Amino acid sequence: FTVLGGLSYYYLLQIEDALGLAEVVDDLSNNILETRRYEKNYLLYAMEEDYAESQRYSELALGIIARIEPLEGGLIGSDQHGRSTLLRLREQLYGYREIFSKLDQLRLEGQAKASDAVRPELRERGKDLVEESRRFVTYQRERILDIVGTLKRQLSLSIASFIAVAVFFSWLVGRRIFGALSIIERSARQI
Questions:
Q1: For the segment 120-137, what is each residue's pLDDT rounded down to a tens digit?
Q2: What is the pTM of this model?
Q3: Distance between CA atoms of residues 118 and 120, nearest Å
Q4: Residue 46 falls in which region: left (phi positive, over 0), alpha (psi -120 to 50) or beta
Q5: Please, what is the angle between helix 112-190 and helix 80-108, to 10°?
Q6: Cα separation, 99 vs 102, whole angstroms
Q7: Terminus of the chain with fewer CB atoms < 10 Å: N or C?
Q8: How far is the C-alpha of 152 from the C-alpha of 127, rounded, in Å?
Q9: How far apart are the C-alpha atoms of 107 and 20, rounded to whole Å?
Q10: Residue 10's pLDDT is what?
């Protein structure tokens, strides 16, 4: 019971950690979506406030990535998938910010043709950024489901083991008791 209780508690702690990380990853994804929303507003209305807000949200997203990275041994896991996805996401976010800054600079300098050439690249980088963040969110959710599945299998195996042990001991104890009672019965008949 102690071993099974300890294992169950360990899996519950893993689920708790993974859910905490999933919340942070959702915040990251939401910040990236907000970055894209302000990008769209900037491309439509060319307002400097939209550029500033987009940069602010991308900075918040980078802050979340910096907060997650030290946890990679525990919360992200020891596998390469979570770590590599996070690194790609950070690199894409830096690249996206660089292109966006270039676009804003060209707009401020009045180079309309050059800025029109940069817009498709910004949109493509933004789209890739959103896709990468969705992959990361999906990966974290799958991790939680894997832990829950492992816990369910472990608990099912424990229940089956307990039932098997109970049946065996019931049979063993019953056999000894009935064996002893039968000896007493034979002795009583002889008397």
A1: 999 999 999 999 999 999
A2: 0.79
A3: 6
A4: left
A5: 160
A6: 5
A7: C
A8: 37
A9: 41
A10: 92
**């002795």: which residue's tokens?**
187
Structure tokens at 53: 């807000």
Split at pLDDT 50, 70, 90, the class of 138 is very high
The answer to whether 158 and 165 are in contact (CB under 8 A) is: no
pLDDT for 75 equals: 46
- Which token pair is 178? 């009935």
Q: Which of 110, 105, 137 is nearest to 122 (CA)?
A: 105
Cα radius of gyration rounded to whole Å, the chain: 30
**Burial label, 150 (beta-carbon count in 10 A; 0-12, 13-18, 19+):** middle
What pLDDT is attached to residue 181?
Answer: 87
State the pLDDT confidence band at 78, using cuts at 50, 70 and 90. Answer: very low
Q: What is the pLDDT of residue 8?
A: 86
Ordered DSSP codes for the chain: -HHHHHHHHHHHHHHHHHHHHHHHHHHHHHHHHHHHHHHHHHHHH--HHHHHHHHHHHHHHHHHHHHHGGGIIIII-SSHHHHHHHHHHHHHHHHHHHHHHHHHHHHHTT-HHHHHHHHHHHHHHHHHHHHHHHHHHHHHHHHHHHHHHHHHHHHHHHHHHHHHHHHHHHHHHHHHHHHHHHHHHHHHHH-
Q: Mind listing the pLDDT tens digit for each residue in 20-46? A: 999 999 999 999 999 999 999 999 998
